[in-house]
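Suppose a classmate hands you a notebook page containing two proteins, each written out with its sequence and a corresponding row of structure tokens. How would you begin to make sense of it? This section walks through that situation. The first entry is reproduced here exactly as it would appear on such a page.
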Amino acid sequence: MTPKRLAIYAGGAVAAVGVILLLVLLHGSGGDEDTGDVTPTATITAVPVRKEALQELANVYGVVQADPSGTATVAAPRPLIVLRVLVRPGQVVTAGEPLAEVANAPAAELAWRQAADAVKFAQADLDRVQRLYAQKLVASDQLDAARKTLADAQAALAAQHSQGADERRQTLSAPVPAIVTSVPASPGDHLAQDAPVVVLARQGAVTARLTLEPSAGRFEPGQVVTLRPVWGGPTISSHLTQVAHAADPTTKTVDAVAALGAGSPPIGSAVEADVVTGMHDALVVPRGSVVFDETGTHVFTISSGKAHRVFVKVGRDHGDDVEVEGPLTPGQPVAVEGAYELQDGMDVKVAGR
């Protein structure tokens, strides 16, 4: 082998050794790093479990109605014919506002004529008896009888007058500020005396009739009620004023009444209501802390920088919070934001700490 070839082989060997040494040095420089698996850490927010006295609520439905104690019926004061109806159901009317125009029916006209004629006849007869009495041609008892006949006829005519029979046409008006609940009469109807023309509900005399399930709790007058119109609108705070003591034989439900004041929903509209039937102590957590997955409903408590899965039973909602039952203690922190990213035993970092 020539000296030149030996020099070439020697240089290659030296280069290879250098590369090997470089690799060894590079590998050795990372020896201080952790080459094992890195434990994941989640950043979460946490709030303490709370123990609170909470209301026991029964959710029920009902309908707005005119309170029977505040209902007034404008009836026909005598036999009438309805000429015009001036209002509609649901309309608000003021005291004295016209409701309907009516006219005397033939029977009412006849009764008025007969009463007026009876007064004229009785007066003429009394004048005759008085002349005869002055001539001592009749006894005093006949004079007394004539006077009584006139008094009776005048009373009958006054009754006809009080019914408006002397007015062939008449306008019936609202006696008080009210809401028109129904109009049983129509133009052209012939009505008997005391037949309803317009039914009114005095303003402010409105209630909610609620349908209660006896199994939902114990219901008593005075219990607080929060009502919400089904089709939207502000909530109404009220209380039960009456609870029936007999269930409907078909539905097995019980009716109750809750007072409504001014600004109540329209009569006949549906309402939803929560009735406070009692109080109880319960553990409460934010709704966002409860995790629902294939393992079951649970929350994650936080202790010593780790998350611990605790299975719970979820109860009633209370706004942004929810009742839970499980092995939890008041003040124990539970994960809220980031709870769905946690696993049992995972390292956690509470935001802001």
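The notebook's second entry, a different protein, reads as follows.
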Amino acid sequence: MKTPQWIPGRADVAGLALAMALGLTSFTLVRSLPASPYISDILIALVLGAGVINSPLRHRIGLLTPEADQKPDRYAAGLRFCGKWVLRLGIITMGLKVQTSFFGSVELALIAGVGFFTLPSAFFVTQALGSLTGIRQPLTDLLAGGTMICGASAVNAIAPISGSRHHEQGIAIAVMFLFSVVALACFRPIAVWIGLDPSFAGIWSGLAVNDLSSAIAVGSQMGGTGDVMAAAAKSARILMLTPTLIMFSLIRREDGPSSKRLSLSKHFPKFVLGYLTLAFIRGAGDHLFSQSPTWTALLTLNSLVVSLALSAVAASIGLHLRLHTLLTTSTPAVVVGAGASLTIASLSLAMITLASHELYTAAGITGAAGLLISILVYRIVIRHTQ
């Protein structure tokens, strides 16, 4: 009988142990240091992982940087397992942290409203910048989809539809990773400087950071309910992957229908169902067992599991953070990715900040203005470059 993919095998042990060790170290360090809004176990885990891969220590432990012409080292399988299955474990178990009091009509409307304006704005800005920089249309589509939805996962889903080349797919993934790292370093200081409440800062993280693991990690940095709100906002955004794939399949008709059907089924985010199931269980449990010490202990244990899982995931991200690769990534693609990331981050931040002060009409007007400007810029650029 074949072992399920979500159960680690012997080949996964080394990489999984390394990521978990770094995650546990960061978890312990943060709780030993004086409290600071600029330090979190997620950030420390990322720095520790990057420190290992970019220092002589990697040679001592036999950690290789993955290259096309060499076999993966003994850590590669476990790090992939951590980035996929440990991440999903963290997100699914995060459903048990959801309290119905977190989500009022304001939060739900905010997630829907901000996404309605920012996702198409990012698409039009990306297409305009792609045309200006002269990169191929398939690479532009990859950068647009990755920024709009969920980073590398969206890139991989859109690749067979857009007709991109293999190296373009790699470039797009590297750009997504680069700006996820930027978000990990910048979002929390910005939120603190603005004075954004952790719940709103978490929504911003979920709606503006492209990569799934990084979005959850950034939300966790915000403290309070930031991680839960980031997971909720990101889950809503990930659900847009299917209509996004349909959109690209309609506007890029070069490929056959079979590849489109494959992408739609293969990349549907089934783990979101687990998250929603545990969120429902949390609501029922709070109603039935709110005074039970066992229920309280279970929730405390679950929070610990979530924190350790996400710290390990952040460490695995850091262990792939090769400075040489990031510095040598295609410059035009970096410019396009920067424009797309800045658009979705700044527009969503402006709308969420206004909404946090109950200026809902102003938030809507800001989103509409941002979308209108992005469409006008796109039309002007396309008119002059084609």
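A careful reader of the second entry would note: Confidence is low (pLDDT under 50) at residues 254-264.
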